[in-house]
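Recap from last week: sequence in, structure out.
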Amino acid sequence: MIQYSSNNTLDDLDKAILQLLQTAGRISNVELANQINLSPPAIHARLKRLEQRGYIRQYVALLDREKFGYDMLCFIEVSLQLHQSEQVENFRQLMQQMPEVLECHHVTGEYDYLLKIVVRNRAELERFVVKRLTPIPGIARIHTSLVLSEVKQTTALPLG
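Predicted structure tokens:
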């Protein structure tokens, strides 16, 4: 029987499992077991432990945005006028509700938030900025950058 340490550290087998899952999320437990040189029940137990401890948050399919007509990927920097908790919480809740917003990060520097959004075209971008973002109470500045090409895009963490 495989013994796990009681702390939250990952051993080399855990890291190998996670590395494979990051690049081949649909791999079966049997194939995963073959590649890691463990039995399928041992792989299953490790996966359950990794899930329970929060190392694996969810399993997803990564879709090709362009095949769905989302030709424009944009980064939008947003500054708030005041940093009162009510205004900040309102902004954060609104970002959660906007499907165009793929990511929203609270950042340091000249702006307060960095948004990663997708839209189908220039008209949708204009509607998003003018009709959805600008009317939010407390927004001081908005700066939009259009992505010309994606040089690197990955969701895989460096576990080495």
